Amino acid sequence: VKGEYKHFMQKEIYEQPRAITDTIRGRVDFDNMQIVLPELNITAEQIRQLDQIVTVACGTSYYSGLVGKFFIEKLARLRVEVAYGSEYRYSDPILDERTAILAITQSGETVDTLAAIEEAREKHATIWSIVNAIGSQAMRVADGYIAMHAGPEIGVASTKAFVTSIVDQYLLALYLAQARGTLSQDQLRQAIHDVSRLPDLIGRTLEMDAAVQELAQALYQYTDFLYLGRGINYPIALEGALKLKEISYIHAEGYPAGEMKHGPIALIDESMPVLAIALKDDLYEKMISQIEQAQARGGIVIALATQGDSFIAQKADHVLYVPETPYLLSPVVNVVPLQLLAYHIAALRGADVDQPRNLAKSVTVE
Ligand code: M6R
């Protein structure tokens, strides 16, 4: 039931703090400051034998994998490749018993992701899945799994499954780091502290809903959008654009900000809103320079910025402020205003938010 909400998607956006609390619960042993993932079904010795992880997924789950690659490489120092489920088996992939395949799938029934698992199985890789639907095929065929604990997701546009699958990968990265000895006890304690703050940070981010709705009012009649991000927030630019196109039918592209000048800048004029994720992190100066370039071409710049950054208000036409969050976990907070923006724009255009045309919740055909 939707209760006080107009759409399931809106309800599911608001459920994210609770969903993340459920995802963390039981996986963090706060007494010993350790991550526990028994369903992964692997020993520390087996983890030390691995030399790469290949993440396979489709759509939003693929973007989640792009974020997770940063966690696993940074925290556990293990190489990660991220592949589309629909492409993987056509690439004659190089993998063996020292590879773990990480299939990310909300439904656990996406046929392309299942086909990638099949391919990996034949080549003797270890199979892990991150799934929301308990008992689904991707969970049953895996050697080990991590549940998203998002609860049922009804809206076709994925929201709470996206953020919980990112949190699962953060926990996985810490779990692998424990076995591989790549983090000190202090670093592990800090990482656990950081992830525990997420429900509160997302709760605070949701308080900006009225401001996002007002922005949607100013933007909903435009027909082309560009989303820019860098580093760990590049996948969030992709996800923001996907959300908008899925439910509002507006053309939107996500781009790594540095690539703008290699092509898409030709598109920018006064009819194109450009949403730039420009937080106060190491990439801030670079993002400011992209914003200046977009503005010089007449683009309408919307900056997603860190609370307290008044400088950016002089550079952008609109600013959405999010609470300061540790860099690695910032995607989880940053995606929330982009979900809300897509939601409000779609609602203003009178689109069927929960059941967009031509889309199914679970894609079970190739
Ligand atoms: O159930 P899955 O996570 O395997 O689904 C993958 C994609 O079909 C899915 O994320 C799709 O892109 C969503 N509609 C995005 O909102």
What is the topology?
Blueprint: H1 8-14, H2 16-24, E1 28-29, E2 34-35, H3 44-49, E3 52-57, H4 59-76, E4 80-84, H5 85-88, E5 99-105, H6 111-122, E6 126-131, H7 137-140, E7 144-147, H8 160-180, H9 185-196, H10 198-206, H11 209-219, E8 224-229, H12 234-248, E9 251-256, E10 273-277, H13 284-296, E11 300-306, E12 318-322, H14 330-348
Parallel strand pairs: 3-4, 3-5, 5-6, 6-7, 8-9, 8-10, 10-11, 11-12
Antiparallel strand pairs: 1-2
The chain binds 5-amino-5-deoxy-1-O-phosphono-D-mannitol.
Domain SIS: 43-182, 215-356
GO molecular function: carbohydrate derivative binding; glutamine-fructose-6-phosphate transaminase (isomerizing) activity
Protein name: Glutamine--fructose-6-phosphate aminotransferase [isomerizing]
Describe the structure in your own words.
The chain has 366 residues and is an alpha/beta fold. The protein has 14 helices and 12 strands. It has a 5-stranded parallel sheet, sandwiched between helices. It has a 5-stranded parallel sheet with strand order 9-8-10-11-12. α7 links the parallel β6 (126-131) and β7 (144-147). The longest helix has 21 residues, at 160-180. The mean pLDDT is 96. 5-amino-5-deoxy-1-O-phosphono-D-mannitol (M6R) binds at residues 58-61, 105-107, 110, 113, 156-158, 246, 359, 362-363.
